[in-house]
Amino acid sequence: MDGIQIVGLDKRYGSVEVIKNFNLEIEQGEFLVFLGPSGCGKSTLLRMIAGLDSVSAGEIHIAGRDVTQLAPGARDVAMVFQHYALYPHMTVYDNMAFGLRNVNMPAAEIDRRVQEAARMLELTPLLQRKPVQMSGGQRQRVAIGRAVVKEPYAFLFDEPLSNLDAALRSRTRVELARLHQRLKSTMIFVTHDQVEAMTLATRIVVMNAGKVEQVGRPMDIYRQPASRFVASFIGSPTMNFVDVELAEDRAGAAAVRLPDGSVVQTTVATAGLPRSGRFTLGARPEALVIDDSGSAGLIGGRVELVERLGDQTHVHVALASGASVVAHAHRDSEIEAGAPVGLRLDAEAVHLFDESGAAYHAQARSSS
Ligand SMILES: Nc1ncnc2c1ncn2[C@@H]1O[C@H](COP(=O)(O)OP(=O)(O)O)[C@@H](O)[C@H]1O
Ligand SMILES: [Mg+2]
Questions:
Q1: How far is the CA of 47 from the centre of ligand 2 (A)?
Q2: What integer pLDDT is reported at residue 249 of this predicted model?
Q3: Strand pairing partners for 119?
């Protein structure tokens, strides 16, 4: 069987359960991202796949082999860490060749692989340099090159971009995406950065405290987050959350009452909702748009702060209830702090969350 299968994986440190009954099928050639806050168990999971940590229970299969008890070197995977530990006294070439020489690969084959990896990662002019003569981004590319020359079945990346400054991080991210397009190998990538997850992943596994919150394609997770945790973790600026009460049911769709008493009609089906309890309305900034037409049905508030990003303008608005939300304005908007504003809510792009955090999504209205 192709790909990687993780079955019933547990990891305990003494009495502390770090990973609980983790199950996942990873297809051959996927770019799979484990996304979650610090401490949720991402590195632990990756290290178990690599064979650097033992499992407490469960099995790991790679390309049809049960590797659960195999040593890291026998698993046909290569790992790249956040802290790229290059050998400081060796050239780039020797850093990349080192692991291959260790397994007595013929020199001609080593040379072919190092030259090819160097070309791919634009390291050819640097092959005779030592790490101290290179930038952080170049060193991280060498660390990636050291994995590439192994021609592994799967690449395992543990926050490899976290040590780079913002500009280098986004450049190296693009290089990784290109590398994946070219090699078509299975890649598993761990990060706490939702932008990296959204841009690189074919599928994202959102994790929270050792458990899977949601598995899905980036845009599916963005549009239909399975829980309030996922909704708040994905997207920047983060989704707005406002406490609401269920107001009425119009043709099967829920209307909700905001703290200031105004009622907002959503297209969330009432049928699936719990009948009572507290609810939270979730709306991303792009679903909450500044509207200065003065038309009826707008939510009133006052501008607290305007952030102009050039292509977009984010407006922080205090609602009458005191809650603060972030809305989108047209990029040419001349809106200023202190101004009263009306907000139009896109009823087809909202979410309701019940007390347990479970999500209920708005439906697109039929076009008739
Ligand atoms: N060797 C260890 N002994 C005890 N607890 C550990 C050990 N390694 C990791 N942990 C705990 O396991 C949890 C998950 O850690 P980790 O996998 O490093 O999280 P992440 O990579 O998502 O930030 C953390 O609470 C951490 O403190
Ligand atoms: Mg980690």
A1: 10
A2: 74
A3: none
Q: Output the CA angle 47-49-50, nearest 5 degrees.
A: 60
pLDDT at site 368: 44
For residue 77, give every residue at least 6 positions away whose Cβ sits within 8 Å of its Cβ, in sequence order, or none. 49, 50, 51, 62, 152, 153, 154, 155, 156
Ligand 1 atom at minimum distance from 41 CA: 17
Average pLDDT along the chain, 368 residues, taken 10 residues at a time = 95 95 97 97 97 97 97 95 90 96 96 95 94 91 95 96 87 92 96 96 96 97 97 95 88 88 90 89 96 84 96 94 92 93 92 96 74
Decide which of 2.60.40.10, 2.40.50.140, 2.160.20.10, 3.40.190.10 is the CATH code for 240-361: 2.40.50.140
State the ligand closest to the CA atom of 18: 1
**Residue with the nearest Cα to atom 18 of ligand 1?**
43
158 C-alpha to ligand 2 centroid (Å): 7
Residues with CB under 6 A from ligand 1: 13, 18, 36, 38-44
For the chain, the domains span 4-233, 240-361
The atom number, within ligand 1, closest to the CA of 34 reads: 22
pTM for the whole structure: 0.93
Q: How would you classify residue 65: left for phi > 0, otherwise alpha for psi between -120 and 50, otherwise beta?
A: beta
CATH top class, domain 4-233: alpha beta
Distance in Å, CA 55 to ligand 1 centroid: 13
